[in-house]
Please model this.
Amino acid sequence: MNNDNVLKKEFSKKDVQRARNIITGDTTFRTTEGVGYSKKYEHHIEGDVWEENGRKWTIKNGVKQNITKMDKFKKMGKTPLFCPECGTLMKKELDKKVFPAYQKCFDCVVDHEAELIRQGKSKDHFGKLRNSHIQNAMNGFEDFMKDRMSESNDNYVTEAGDVENWRGGKSKEELKQELQEGLEFLEELKVK
Ligand SMILES: [Zn+2]
Model:
């Protein structure tokens, strides 16, 4: 396998991992694929905020990230202070974990599911829930990949000194292909 193929394989693996992370709620969108050499770059360090092509950027954990995009994802996963169902303060880590999928606090989820099991409706319920969670992941992944397609393919150097770019040196066609494969992978996980 030549070097290009090694990188390609490595990168696709990371995209699948990222898709899995979206499902498990670990939505730190890191891309660390190096391209090995540099044609053109600006040097920025961790925490820098700068504008480029009309968009705001920063380096977080050594990786260049689009701030607008990060804000969007933060908003997506935002948990309100109080549970809409029972009105208690949602301060537990578990509340934050379950809220995006269930729109209620952890205790309410436990009660609701116990009730469904009593009524013998749990199988259907969990299947639907899993599918809606997967669909959310698919939407997030699609947004993320489309954002990547719209970025420039110029290189930059991270604080750690690695040469990287947002697209990983990929053409739009290659990203489209990866998007398609990722969506198919997630679709397969749905309960039929
Ligand atoms: Zn509640």
Observations:
- The helical segments are 3-23, 67-76, 93-102, 106-118, 122-150, 172-188.
